[in-house]
Design brief:
single chain, 223 residues, alpha/beta, Rossmann fold, 7-stranded mixed beta sheet, 42% helix, binds S-adenosylmethionine, SAM_O-MeTrfase, S-adenosyl-L-methionine-dependent methyltransferase, transferase, S-adenosyl-L-methionine, O-methyltransferase activity
């Protein structure tokens, strides 16, 4: 089957899953249309991914979520829908302003700033989170991950989005090259896995294969 046919098939599978598994949510729909009317780029997580993240947070009974990369707050709304308090970091003031409109009335705090400036201050303030979602600058993922290990409670999870697509698009992908995956593999404080995904969410063949890294932070008693 050609990759065009596969994209078409993935589209059908996705459409069926969207129709069958998702309930309508007017706040999410409003957030997408408001973000579009403000010309924010269409680079949110997919609705099914949002539902996955919400399920994952419920599985670990997450009461506090840290998100790196707010955009218009679409994923923040998914996290807030679980009852968790959401802290989200965004570097772009326009994105932050639209996200404030979209998340009005929800327990979502948006911090304006560069993640690598904000994360150390959260750690210095003794903040801990149950779930950390990394979805900002691909070039800084390993730095975010290292801060996330410090900021996650024992038993909490770290989710890094777009890890497979980043590797697929990388010029130097080779067995012996260092990547986020190899670096995480050497980090003794976590147990991690890579979950490849296939989706037509972004609508191009190049972006159909992706996947995320999911890690759980271990306690000393596991070592
Ligand atoms: C893929 S979008 C986030 C999408 C959002 N999580 C969602 O699914 O609705 C990435 C966002 O990260 C922000 N960003 C990029 N570099 C950043 C940095 N160094 N610190 C904080 N935010 C950053 C971008 O401005 C953009 O809004």
């Amino acid at each position: 089957m050609s990759s065009t046919d596969k994209l078409h098939q993935a589209g059908k599978i996705h459409a069926q899953a969207r129709t069958s598994l998702l309930r309508s949510n007017s706040q999410l729909d409003r957030a997408l249309s408001n973000s579009k009317s403000h010309d924010l780029p269409p680079i949110t997580i997919s609705p099914l991914q949002g539902q996955y993240l919400a399920i994952q947070c419920q599985l670990i009974n997450a009461k506090s979520v840290l998100e790196i990369g707010t955009l218009g707050g679409y994923s923040s709304i998914w996290f807030a829908s679980t009852g968790a308090k959401v802290t989200s970091i965004e570097i772009n003031p326009k994105h932050r302003d639209v996200a404030l409109e979209n998340t009005k009335g929800l327990d979502v705090e948006i911090i304006l700033g560069a993640a690598l400036d904000v994360l150390p201050s959260l750690a210095a303030g003794g903040r801990k989170f149950d779930f950390i979602f990394i979805d900002a600058d691909w070039g800084e993922q390993w730095d975010y991950f290292q801060w996330a290990v410090k900021l996650t409670r024992v038993g909490g999870c770290i989710y890094v989005d777009n890890v497979v697509r980043e590797l697929l698009e990388s010029e130097n992908l080779g067995e012996h090259e260092e990547s986020l995956v190899t670096k995480v593999g050497k980090e003794k404080k976590v147990t991690a896995t890579l979950i490849p995904t296939v989706s037509d969410h972004k609508g191009t063949a190049q972006e159909m294969f992706d996947g995320f890294l999911l890690a759980v932070v271990k306690g000393d008693y596991y070592e």
